Amino acid sequence: MAQIDAGAIIFDMDGLLVDSEPLWAEVEADFARTRGGEFTRELARRCVGQGLANTLRVMRDAFGFHVDIERDSAEIIDRFVARARDLALKPGALELLNEVDGVVPVALGSSSSRRLVVSVLDAVGLSSRFGVVVTGDDVEHPKPAPDIFVKCARELGVMPARCLVLEDSLAGVRAGRAAGMRVIAVPEGDPHGRGFEDHADAVVADLFEARRLISLA
Q: Whole-prediction pTM value?
């Protein structure tokens, strides 16, 4: 597979750097259960990478209960943050961050709220790794819209075409492509049939494999 040039790298957080999707699924399922809904793994997969507001709307439509986006998002975030110390980094995350440190500019772009992103980065020891952090609170439209990644590039001072996005979700991959960036997808589970290959420059099994494809320019 051909090397992919990176003048800057923009990392997603949940599911890409941090092994957080299982905890998210548990927390969201517990929340839905208190309202009388059974939030299945399939429903959770449909919501990955698109922000809590979207997840709550999916719950509302699936189970018919009323949601208050601001109040209920805060409750779910509180539940997640309370367990953030249980989180671990994904394989290869620390090695990749160490290797690119000081070589190319890096940013973190997440659809999650800033309070949650800051809490998770602190819990896993990555708070000092990113000079630029853009969250769902900072833009009008979350992924799969390109807003988060476009803002990352602007704050890094790097043209979008020179940026490489690393993402685990299809929504994030689509956002990176819509921003005019190169994209490496690192999906959890089997990526085939879920559309990753239609939008990403490469689909890999883990961050070690992703690093072997990156040419630091």
A: 0.88
